[in-house]
Design a protein that fits this description.
The protein is mostly helical and 63 residues long. Helices cover 83% and strands 0% of the residues. It contains two helices and no strands.
Amino acid sequence: MSSEDVFYAMGDGMYWLFQNTLEPIGDLFWQACLIFGFVAFGYWMYRQYKFNKEAENDPNQIK
């Protein structure tokens, strides 16, 4: 068994994986990633707002 056989087997496996998982999903995966990104960004901004508000009310902050 040569390295060529290993690399062709890996390539065939990746091709099979693509055809049987990514193609049937279609646009659903990237749309879910995009929605998750927006939700995560919104949550991050909400937490940042709360931290900034807490920092403004604390006079013992090092600035």
